Amino acid sequence: MSSFVEELDTPAVVIDLDRLDRNLRQTSDRAARAGVKLRPHIKTHKSIWIAKRQLALGACGITVAKLGEAEVMAEAGIEDILIAYPILGARKLARLAALIEKARVTVGVDSVEAAEGLSRLGLTLGTRIPLYLDVNSGLDRCGAEPGAPSAEIGLRLAELAGVELVGLMTHAGHAYSRSTVDGCREVAHAEAQALLATQEQLRAQGITVLEISVGSTPTSKFIGEVKGITEMRPGAYVFGDGSQLYPGTIALEECAMHIYATVVSAPRPGTLILDAGSKTLTTDVSVHRPGYGYVPDHPDAVIERLSEEHAIMRVPDDCSLRIGDVVSIIPNHCCTVVNLQDGLIGVRNGRFERELPVDARGRIR
Q1: Maximum Cα–Cα distance for the chain, whole Å?
Q2: What is the pLDDT of residues 27-56, one digit of tens each?
Q3: What are the two backbone dihedrals, phi and then psi, of residue 58, each rounded to the nearest 5 degrees?
């Protein structure tokens, strides 16, 4: 057993720094080969240290989900930030005004109503706030439909004085539900075509939108296959997780995040209890595999149920695990795991190297 495991106080979320570095470099290189800018989404790691590593490896800026994440990153000196989320209300607009003094901020919108508030702020500040218009590419979350419906909103945004429509964006999160690599590739192509259809509609109306920005880690693997994309915003690629491993878009060796848990009870045949419950593993499940995570050293084990501090794991009769043993778990969804931690444990070559503070943890506003 590795020396760092012997010293762990479980449950613990551990990041293999060598794997993290490889993941960062591979995605940066993939973007460069495709001639596409990389603007990673930091909601996965929420770490100033990792964000600065991404920028050092060639990222053009970062993406955040909320103003609070942006404020943390700007305070740390990161200067180019996309807030991929509508900003509404006087309180948030006041915070955005303060943020604009520290960084170049672009804001995602999918409605005229949100853009009008930003326009008024831009006029007050004597500037034009750059906007990305969100387009629905199949996730059915934010964004109008591609083509004419979203272009109609874009035309109205172009009429507002205090903002500037500079890009179109989408997030093809539904790629995670595809069970094969080819299925993810299909979503990647459809994601790109949705934005290009809207761009063409706007061009026909005399509006030129230069930035075409796609999201989602699974679809980023195919970034070089569709022409016209200028930017990608993957997030979960940094750590890897079950949502990527099970469909085959990454290999086991790319999973940089492992949760270590101790067997604390064996109350009945076929059942073991681990000390990592929903407060560590989260309640996220996968459409591809049963349970609340994957135990690579014991692939037939299934984490069937969670309470806050317990994981109830079904194991085969010949399972070698005993009370006191430590198991390694690949979580279903790395992003939600991170937000439950104050810090992650960074190891290299089997030894502890650094703690990674989760600097933007809980910044949900």
Answers
A1: 71
A2: 999 999 999 999 999 999 999 999 999 999
A3: 120, 0
